[in-house]
Every structure is written in C-alpha cells, then in structure tokens.
Amino acid sequence: MRRHPLPTAAQLLWYKLMTVANGLFWPEWFTVDNDRLAELINGSKKTAIAARSELIDGGFLLFERGVKRQPSRYKLLSIAEMEQPHQEAPEDAGAPP
C-alpha cells in the first residue's frame, strides 16, 4: 500500500476483506453482498462501494458483480507481489561473468 495510498475507508475494507477470507480458509474467490460490505466498515453502502472502487483501481482487488440477487465475488491480490520491484530473468543465466 506504500505505492498506492488509499483513503481510510478503503484501507479498512481491505483488512476486513482479509478477515473474511481468513475465516473462509483463504479461497481464491469469495462472496460478500453489499449490505455486509457496508457492515464490515460500519458505513453506508455508498461508502463501501466507493472504498471497493478504490481497491479495484489500486490493483488490490478483483471484483465480479453478482447477478440476479446473488452476492458479488471478490479476489484479494497479493500486496507483497505489488510492492516488490519486478525482477527480470537474466538473459545469460548460465554464462560466466
């Protein structure tokens, strides 16, 4: 999160979604409806949806909108991978220096 500063509500939502995923034993994708999303951050649906948008825009979260009264699906993306500089494989890994 150092490279992508987030508003407080988005940071809180990130940690709350991590708690949800942890309670579900870290599935790749999990579902949360908008009412629960708002409850997680003790805010309104509008605030929760705005926080979710910040996480999506920052590259922290993948989101699939629920259809026909089904809850939306979420996938948390690794911050560790985002924070590490991209390392390219050396072209001549086996060649002596």
Give short descriptive properties of this protein:
three-stranded antiparallel beta sheet; alpha+beta; 4 helices; single chain; 12% strand; 3 strands; 42% helix; globular; 97 residues
Structure report:
- The protein has 97 residues and is α+β, with helices and mostly antiparallel strands.
- The chain contains four helices and three strands, in the order αβααββα.
- The chain has helices spanning 8-23, 34-40, 45-57, 79-83; strands spanning 30-32, 61-64, 72-76.
- The chain has a three-stranded antiparallel sheet with strand order 1-3-2.
- A hairpin with a 7-residue loop joins strand 2 and strand 3.
- The longest helix is centred in the N-terminal third of the chain and has 16 residues, at 8-23.
- It is globular, with a radius of gyration of 17 Å.
- The termini are far apart.
